[in-house]
Design a protein that fits this description.
With 167 residues, the chain is an alpha+beta fold. Helices cover 22% and strands 41% of the residues. The radius of gyration is 15 Å and the shape is globular.
């Protein structure tokens, strides 16, 4: 397995840009700031998806996303959730990915991914023990909350006082 440093992103509300983990600066169509987080919507030049919507939720340590896949790359998922550190700033929000991800199939199940990546990153010194433990705690809390709401991420977030809406 290739071990890499945590992926970092920047979300510039003034310039309406999103700097992805590889340093590519992408134009953002829409940002919306709420007391609980930041919504971003933008087009994508990725070969598998053409549009991305995300909510950065600092208090929960989550980034919830909808990838609008091209029909020939469609995936069996409704929401994709990154575990990490998300910080609000003026004008730039920042994120640091903590490797763990969740795939939510609304009404059916929630799957935890990339535990092996988290452990490899910790072993390689990219994450200290406290950060790795925090990532596990955040992920398990999210899985429990989503499952308790019928595997509906949006319902769980609304119950947490974070009523998200999408395009």
């Amino acid at each position: 397995m290739h071990v890499h440093p945590p992926k970092k992103e920047a979300f510039d509300l003034s310039d309406l840009t999103n700097t992805d983990p590889k340093g590519f600066v992408r134009p953002v169509e829409h940002y919306r700031v709420e007391p609980w987080g930041l919504y971003m919507a933008r087009h994508s030049d990725h070969p598998h998806f053409h549009y991305l919507e995300s909510w950065l939720l600092p208090d929960l340590g989550l980034r919830a996303s909808i990838f609008h896949y091209h029909p020939y790359h469609a995936r069996d998922q409704d929401r994709y959730v990154d575990i990490g550190e998300f910080s609000a700033g003026q004008p730039v929000w920042r994120s640091v990915d903590h490797y763990l991800d969740l795939v939510v199939r609304t009404g059916r199940d929630t799957e935890l991914l990339d535990v092996d990546e988290l452990l490899a990153a910790h072993t390689s010194g990219y994450l200290d023990a406290a950060t790795a433990e925090q990532a596990i705690t955040v992920a398990t809390r999210a899985v429990d909350g989503i499952a308790a709401h019928g595997h509906d991420l949006d319902a769980w977030l609304a119950a947490e006082g974070m009523p998200v809406s999408w395009r």
